[in-house]
Amino acid sequence: MARVAKKRKQAKRPAKAKAAAAVSPVVTKAEKALEAATKSLDAQMDRVAKAKERAQKSATAAAKKALTNANGKAKDLRAKVTAAKVELSKAKAMDAVRQAEEAAKAKISEMAEKLSDKADKDLAAAVKAFEARWRKARAKADAKKVKAAEKKAKTKVKAAAKKAATKAKALEKKAAAKAKAEAKKAAKKAVKKKPGRPKKVGRPKKAVAEKGVTEKAAAKKGPGRPKKSTRRGRPPKASTAQAPAPKAKRRGRPPKQK
């Protein structure tokens, strides 16, 4: 007796997944393959049902063979549907991984952008704080340098003023000495120009007698600075005969008497 195929409930078609923001082409291909396999299985199950009805009515060998072939094809199609479901599950899993990766990348990118904005703000604040500290320290250092320069300049000015005062004092002293010397010189000139006793006008003495008197006077006075000659022109020849020089007086304690 031929084995009668059990009546099989029609497999429910899987509900179409909600369209994602960006559906993977692999998932779409798997869904289409599953849909085609399911349609083929549904059609084959209709043929199996008809073949079963014919075999029940006639119970001939040909009818039984047709039923067996229809069940075999239905079995192959069920295997294809199962395989299509597996492929669709795998594609969905891979697509979920892809979507998770893309979401993670988007989240990381967004986080990086936020961190970059925050870093820019923090950097601006840090630069501002550093600039304030740097300017404060620099102002302190510059003030110290300016104070040292002022002190040095004051010392230099003080030294220059002292030097100028010393120089001015020396110049005043020199000018006073010069004025004093000039006054003294002027006084001497005034004394020389003072009128003396007028000489008697008479007969000039002979040159020989005047010469003898001059020599006697020179002998009395001793050697000394010669007076400037008032005579202009060539000086007269000195006489060969000179008066004996007077014996120099001894200075100090007189010798003991014998």
From TrEMBL:
Residues 142-152, 169-185, 207-218 have a biased composition (Basic and acidic residues). Residues 1-16, 153-166, 186-206, 222-235, 247-258 have a biased composition (Basic residues). Residues 57-72 have a biased composition (Low complexity). Residues 1-22, 49-76, 142-258 are annotated as: Disordered. InterPro entries: AT_hook_DNA-bd_motif (IPR017956). This is Histone. It comes from Microbulbifer aestuariivivens.
